[in-house]
Amino acid sequence: xxxxxxxxxxxxxxxxxxxxxxxxxxxxxxxxxxxxxxxxxxxxxxxxxxxxxxxxxxxxxxxxxxxxxxxxxxxxxxxxxxxxxxxxxxxxxxxxxxxxxxxxxxxxxxxxxxxxxxxxxxxxxxxxxxxxxxxxxxxxxxxxxxxxxxxxxxxxxxxxxxxxxxxxxxxxxxxxxxxxxxxxxxxxxxxxxxxxxxxxxxxxxx
Length: 206
Known about the structure:
Structural class: alpha/beta
CATH topology of the largest domain: Rossmann fold
Order of helices and strands: HEHEHEHHEHHEHE
Oligomer: single chain
Number of domains: 2
Strand order of the largest sheet: 3-2-4-5-1-6
């Protein structure tokens, strides 16, 4: 049988470690004083890039902050998140600008026109002072296929208003975008149900 005093000593040591850990953490947090708009990138092959961004959108709405969303690609899809967000009038404006994925449109010029229109809308929202967060959904895909001039996008985002958060989602984020971002998250695919012949399903994919 274990000695009760040994257990008491172990608990005391554990509590002391936690106390020291909290002191160290508090010192680190005390140095974190900056606020302001962040440039955030969600990329990678794994699922959840737009979903994570929509979570941030929901947080902003919960705090009464206004959000703008530009959908660069998924315009044809009736997504569940869009239905939910449109139930928050006055706090969310959604610009559905996409024409579908490139393998669906099979028209490069049409894709570029759609990308240009979406980008102009994005700039309008970011400059407007009406939104505290603007989500550029799937802009990384547009940049991957050179449907917008990368340098133009980078220059604009680098000089964006200091108090506006901007989130860029999509696979294959350009290194130049990653370089200027304040936060970058890469979704890593370990396993995907698509490979087991599951199709896109409401509530999971859209």
